[in-house]
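STRUCTURE:
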């Protein structure tokens, strides 16, 4: 029987990017995922050689294949170039950033019952990069919130809740201070919530959410929020389940989808062979589910669940004594 293969664009990134990309591609191959790959190096090192952070043929590949697996890319702080992540999200209007944080029985944390999915608006808010120097001592940054962008992310959160049988969607905001911008996001939330009478809708101020998340994370279900809060709060949810090495994500737009770990390029451990590939692997599972290869995704998720209790093969961030390679070998053995 011939299986139709789908071609995926892969951006290898830098820091631990190349290590976790190799790890995940090995596992996808071992799981017999019916995929072909077009792999590109992107980032500062590529710029030094070619004059472009993302080469034209890499963009063209994504425009053809529409699905990308992207490993982390370093962004300089302060001066230098605009984040390539933000560039990709805006260029392809990947407006919905979905970040599921779920406790795993094998990873010991004080919070065994976390099951939170963050829907982060991905294209506006303070991330539009409109900053203006007023004088030597003053800088302004624009926070843009639009009805259109708020509507589509909030609707996606409710649709997700409906399809996945989730009980509650919480809007996270700061409308007590940012009365117009977050006020607009919040009013759109309540308008759309009215169309989903079977799903509980509540709203909370972002600082209170952070406190409740570290005290009673099990009370949260689906969260939806503007870009900046989504960036911060979702990292917090990764801490609840065992760290950044365990938080995958999807960036979805109309027709395009990019899957990546939430963590960055981890320069402090790059090249040491100890990067945890789980978040990137689970991102690949989200990608497989997006292209309706559910069985392969389930097979990989099961192999990871069977691997996580074996601390001798896990990477140090999970309290293990192993390396990226021992972890990958074990997942492949379980497959
Ligand atoms: P980071 O997420 O790279 O690292 C934070 C901490 O978590 C570090 O101690 C790191 O060693 C650890 N960590 C992260 N991923 C890990 C993994 N898979 N296994 C084991 N430990 C892991 O955040 P940081 O250091 O603030 O950012 C480094 C660079 O990455 C920056 O240039 C930043 O802009 C960029 N970045 C890129 C992202 C992307 O490409 N999507 C997302 C976030 C940051």
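SEQUENCE:
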């Amino acid at each position: 029987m011939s299986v139709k293969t789908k071609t995926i664009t892969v951006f290898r990134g830098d820091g631990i990017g190349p290590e976790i990309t190799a790890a995940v591609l090995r596992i996808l191959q071992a799981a017999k995922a019916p995929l072909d790959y077009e792999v590109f190096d992107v980032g500062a090192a590529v710029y030094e050689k070619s004059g472009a952070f993302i080469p034209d043929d890499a963009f063209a590949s994504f425009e053809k294949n529409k699905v990308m697996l992207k490993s982390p890319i370093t962004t300089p702080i302060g001066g230098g170039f605009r984040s390539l992540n933000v560039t990709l999200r805006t260029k392809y209007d990947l407006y919905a950033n979905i970040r599921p944080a779920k406790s795993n029985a094998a990873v010991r944390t004080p919070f065994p019952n976390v099951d939170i999915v963050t829907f982060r608006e991905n294209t506006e808010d303070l991330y539009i990069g409109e900053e203006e120097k007023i004088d030597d001592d003053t800088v302004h940054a624009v926070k843009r919130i639009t009805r259109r962008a708020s509507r589509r992310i909030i609707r996606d959160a409710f649709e997700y809740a409906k399809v996945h049988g989730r009980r509650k969607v919480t809007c996270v905001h700061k409308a007590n201070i940012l009365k117009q911008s977050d006020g607009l996001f919040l009013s759109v939330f309540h308008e759309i919530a009215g169309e989903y009478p079977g799903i509980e809708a509540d709203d909370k101020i972002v600082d209170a959410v952070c406190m409740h998340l570290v005290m009673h994370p099990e009370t949260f279900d689906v969260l939806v929020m503007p870009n900046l809060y989504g960036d911060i709060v979702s990292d917090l949810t990764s801490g609840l389940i065992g760290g950044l090495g365990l938080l995958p994500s999807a960036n979805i737009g109309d027709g395009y989808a990019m899957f990546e770990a939430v963590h960055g390029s981890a320069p402090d451990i790059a090249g040491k062979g100890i990067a945890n590939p789980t978040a990137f692997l689970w991102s690949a599972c989200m990608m497989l589910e997006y292209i309706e290869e559910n069985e392969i995704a389930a097979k990989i998720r099961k192999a990871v669940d069977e691997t996580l209790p074996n601390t001798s093969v896990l990477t140090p961030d999970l309290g293990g004594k192993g390396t990226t390679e021992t972890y990958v070998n074990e997942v492949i053995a379980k497959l």
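REMARK: Residues 16, 72-75, 85, 244-245, 260, 263-269, 275-276, 279, 315, 317 surround NAI (CB under 6 Å).
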